[in-house]
Amino acid sequence: NAGVTQTPKFQVLKTGQSMTLQCAQDMNHEYMSWYRQDPGMGLRLIHYSVGAGITDQGEVPNGYNVSRSTTEDFPLRLLSAAPSQTSVYFCASGQGGGGGYTFGSGTRLTVV
Amino acid sequence: GENVEQHPSTLSVQEGDSAVIKCTYSDSASNYFPWYKQELGKRPQLIIDIRSNVGEKKDQRIAVTLNKTAKHFSLHITETQPEDSAVYFCAASIVRGTGRRALTFGSGTRLQVQP
Question: Which residues contact A97 (CB under 8 A, 6 or more apart)?
Fold first, then answer.
């Protein structure tokens, strides 16, 4: 039982490049979310999913796309990286009906 | 949408003292309130949570209180130890049956416990 697995752990991109941050969970959780964490701003919701095939936008969705083709996977795509997207990205999953989220170990992304 | 405000942003206490962190939320429909601890360079981890049908919950040195009328909730840590030093986040969400909304987080409190 690995919990929530995020890859890569570190990434440096050039402005304009695209990439996908991977997130996978093996707990059969319905709910999955992507957050970005910037100093002094807590965790801000980018996109979330309430089940396979269902996604919705969070507080800061611009510049990011998601899809949820399976219960296990919830990748986050950066379409054209910008320096403002330099951040630590966390994927989290949780069960329906409440209970805490389980977070992945995070991806530290730098856009130069 | 939901807005969660958290105070203070930094808190320094002496070892053995108590620490209190306060949060307010805006959506009266929110009914699930977890607290997370994040050590430097690590992922956030759930330390305690409370539902709106409960006013207080304790787990050893940690307690959370909820005032639904005032829409605020607090984390209390007693007999603080150096290993309690971390950033603490409050959050709020709506949970109904098997459904839920994504968590909205406060901006965090950096707790420093001085030995």
Answer: B95, B97, B98, B99, B100
Contact A104 B107 (CB under 8 A): no
What is the tens place of the pLDDT at every residue in B89-98? 999 998 876 6
Q: Supply A38's token pair.
A: 């910037």
**B5 to chain A: closest CA residue:** A42
Specify whether the CB–CB gap between A93 and A24 falls below 8 A: no
Tally the C-alpha atoms within 13 A of residue B38's C-alpha that lie toward its C-beta: 26
Task: Calculate the CA dihedral of residues A88, A94, A96, A97 and round it to 10 degrees.
Answer: -100
| pLDDT of B102 | 84
CB within 8 Å: B43 and A33: no
CB contact under 8 A, A100 and B95: no
Min Cα distance B79 → chain A (Å) is 25
pLDDT in tens, B57-114: 999 999 999 999 999 999 999 999 999 999 999 999 988 766 777 899 999 999 999 9
**Helix and strand numbers, DSSP H then E, in chain B:** 0, 13
